[in-house]
Design brief:
about 750 residues; alpha/beta; Rossmann fold; Immunoglobulin-like; six-stranded mixed sheet; five-stranded parallel sheet; binds beta-D-glucopyranose
Length: about 750
């Protein structure tokens, strides 16, 4: 063919591709295909490369002097830690100077709020309130999308059973059933009605997979796990996010049974992309592609890139292994063009869905940013979420709620006047925006009691260290008061990424301060602020009232004051077991029976118990008190035998027997008595949160179907085996109030 004709043909073809890819009426798949036909290999690889914007670091940063040129040349597909309409618009303009004008996608850790900070996810999970959880994710999406963000690296759906691991704060605790429900709610909240609405962000399920099972609770540590545990406990929340139509996944740092998750084709290809049919894209964790060299699973960056892309990791966050090696790997025949194309098309599809090709600046509206970051509704939503997250652990003699007629209150402790601490780890500082608004605990209480009572303050001690010089002043004001409130706990950066602790007691001399305050004979209410379950035996044995307040976010002070004075009746229940001592870790309710079950603490003789420590946690999964009390009665099953295609209807009546209106979280647990593989003694399979006025009764209904009775058998098939099941209805995993048995028949 004559060169001129060939040239004309190419030009015509390319013009066709270009018009296809710009045609808003064409299906996205066609637009992606057309665009990819125009792209060089280098441009395709650019889409797989994600960099950190240099002004904020959430990992070990690599600085490139020529980042701008790389973006202009189409060598970068995404930036993280780039926020605000001004900054995102500026980088987007640069990206649009590239040959094919492909826009960047901006990713950000919007973990528990953006400007408005919500309770840390673990705290929020204790609300068991799926609507409230969805709403907090929605609100975070509204704010962050208004500030130029397209994509959040949340929700974190790792099951966590070891409170030494600092990242327990980011998830929903120990249980796969509840964890899955919350994961689903969060994805719905972030992604809204659909990806592409300007008030939605793409969600990202992380960290895939089993990151929470890091040996010894040490962050980034290896994981050694049976298939059964993986499928039954660690994978379900991830599957729930796929069911919620999530747009992206992030792989975890750990290796699992010797294979780093970053290059784990069993996880990424066989399960996620093939079996579950996930159509979004997978991003590595920060630098995790290159870190496979440290794992010792690859020799160099070339091998790292080869292993990760072939396993199904589509985007390389910050390691630069893809950028520096993929061209050569394709030339060497180690990575196929179809593998590259698959990864690129997954990413481009999301960019099209976001509408970025039609308007790259649609998330950069300065007016909307201003409006949403100052939306007066958002603090109200945060306050509600915060109140719902506070767990009442102890309330001897109904010390709480405090009377509004108290004359003098002493508010003591290192966290009383702390401001930023209330935000916990993984808060977002929005550059150029005053994200300093936080209601401190002091301010919340001051607002609540107004002129009704005198409020005295003493710091008492620091969070850490041995300095007791503030004790005298604290004791002095306590002696003058009708009631003492002591706010103690961790520093907010003691939990979070790379914040594993071997000693999870209350740090410093804070419990000693409590001892001195109790010695004054005054009633003391303790607030414990933390990002994980702590061990606080002295406090739990001696303080008459304890509220576990986690890190509650922007509205911490108001929410705490609402609960202290009974304007909100606490309803939260723990989603992670609180150990009595670190020696019990890992501890979780859904354990197996063993051949010599530990029956109770009085019978340890040749049983699966400790000789020197109780088998029970201090506070179990599902535990949490209210200012009122609830009676459970009339458990009824529609039938005691069920066939696989049938349902059993279960009903139970709950009565509020106390003086306050309040909410109860009614929990349904099952135990499959005999299985082809052993089954846990209890598994949460349903729950209801219901509001009852004082004296009110209500009947709650549950349905048990085959799905609730199924598990992964030896061959990893999801089966319900005929046999008997115990059904337990309780106020916690230990506080089982009603029990019955039924049989599944063939
Ligand atoms: C964390 C991720 C986070 C990423 C980006 C990593 O160190 O493990 O959870 O999304 O950094 O900030």
């Amino acid at each position: 063919m004559n060169k001129a004709i060939l040239f004309l043909l190419v030009v015509t073809l390319n013009a066709g591709y270009l018009s296809n890819c710009n045609a808003q009426n064409k299906p996205i798949s066609q637009r992606v295909d057309s665009l990819m036909k125009l792209m060089t290999l280098e441009e395709k690889i650019g889409q797989l490369n994600q960099y950190n914007d240099d002004w904020l670091a959430t990992g070990p940063v690599t600085l490139d002097a020529n980042k701008k040129e790389q973006i202009q040349n189409g060598q970068v597909g995404s930036l993280l830690n780039c926020m605000g309409t001004a900054r995102t618009a500026a980088w987007q303009k640069i990206a649009l100077q590239s040959r094919l004008h492909i826009p960047l996608i901006f990713g950000q850790d919007v973990i528990h709020g953006f400007k408005t900070t919500f309770p840390i996810p673990l705290g929020e999970s204790c609300s068991w309130d799926l609507d409230a959880i969805e709403l907090s994710a929605r609100t975070a999406a509204v704010e962050s999308s208004a500030s130029g963000i397209h994509w959040t690296f949340a929700p974190m759906v790792d099951i966590a059973r070891d409170p030494r691991w600092g990242r327990v704060m980011e998830g929903s605790g120990e249980d796969p059933y509840l964890g899955s429900k919350i994961a689903y709610a969060r994805v719905k909240g972030f992604q809204g009605d659909k990806i592409g609405e300007t008030n939605s962000v793409i969600a990202c399920a992380k960290h895939y997979a089993a990151y929470g099972a890091a040996i010894g609770g040490r962050d980034y540590n290896s994981v050694d796990m049976s298939d059964r545990l993986l499928w039954e406990v660690y994978l379900p929340p991830f599957k729930a996010t796929v069911d919620a139509n999530i747009g992206s996944f992030m792989n975890s740092f750990n290796d699992i049974n010797g294979v780093p998750s970053t290059a784990n084709s069993y996880l990424l290809r066989d399960i996620l992309k093939d079996k579950w049919g996930f159509k979004g894209f997978v991003v590595s964790d920060w630098g995790s592609v290159g870190e496979m060299i440290n794992h010792g699973s690859v020799k160099n960056e070339y091998e790292a890139a080869e292993a990760a892309i072939n396993a199904g990791c589509d985007m390389d966050m910050e390691s630069r292994c893809y950028k520096n090696n993929l061209v050569q790997l394709v030339k060497d025949g180690k990575v196929s063009m179809s593998t590259i194309d698959d990864a690129v098309s997954r990413i481009l599809t999301k960019k099209f869905e976001l509408g970025l090709f039609d308007d790259p600046f649609r998330f950069c509206n300065r007016e909307r940013e201003e409006k949403e970051l100052n939306n007066p509704e958002h603090p109200k939503i945060a306050r509600d979420a915060a109140r719902k997250s506070i767990v009442l652990l102890k309330n001897e003699g109904n010390l709480l709620p405090l009377s509004k007629n108290l004359k003098t209150i002493a508010f003591i402790g290192p966290l009383v006047k702390a401001v930023k601490e209330n935000k916990g780890f993984w808060d977002v500082e929005v550059p150029g925006v005053d994200s300093g608004y936080i209601v401190s605990q002091w301010e919340g209480l001051e607002k609540k009691i107004g002129n009704h009572a005198k409020l005295l303050y003493a710091k008492g001690c620091n969070i850490e260290g041995t300095d007791r010089s503030g004790f005298a002043e604290a004791i002095n004001i306590a002696s003058q008061a009708d009631a003492v409130i002591l706010s103690i706990g961790e520093r907010r950066d003691m939990s979070g990424e790379a914040r594993s602790r071997s000693n999870i007691g209350i740090p410093g001399v804070q419990e000693e301060l409590l001892k001195e305050l109790l010695a004054t004979g005054k009633p003391v209410v303790v607030l414990i602020n933390a990002g994980r379950p702590l061990v606080f035996r002295y406090t739990s044995d001696n303080a008459p009232a304890i509220l576990y307040t986690w890190w509650l976010g922007s509205e911490a002070g108001d929410a705490i004051a609402d609960v202290l004075f009974g304007d909100y009746n606490p309803s939260a229940k723990l989603t992670m077991s609180f150990p009595l001592s670190t020696g019990q870790i890992p501890i979780y309710y859904s354990h197996f029976n063993t051949g010599r079950p530990a029956q109770n603490d009085d019978n340890r003789f040749y049983t699966s118990a400790y000789t020197d420590l109780s088998i029970y946690p201090k506070y179990e999964f599902g535990y949490g008190l209210s200012y009122t009390t609830f009676k459970y009665s009339d458990l009824k099953l529609s039938q005691n035998k069920m066939k696989k295609d049938e349902n059993i209807k279960v009903s139970v009546t709950i009565t509020n027997t106390g003086k306050y209106d309040g909410e109860e979280i009614v929990q349904l647990y099952l135990h499959d008595l005999v299985g082809s593989i052993t089954r846990p003694t209890e598994e949460l399979k349903d729950f209801r949160k219901l509001m009852l006025k004082a004296g009110e009764s209500r009947t709650v209904e549950f349905a048990i179907d085959k799905e609730k009775l199924s598990f992964f058998n030896k061959n990893l098939q999801w089966v319900a085996e005929p046999g008997e099941f115990d059904i337990m209805i309780g106020a916690s995993s230990r506080d089982i109030r009603l029990k019955d048995r039924f049989e599944l028949v063939d």
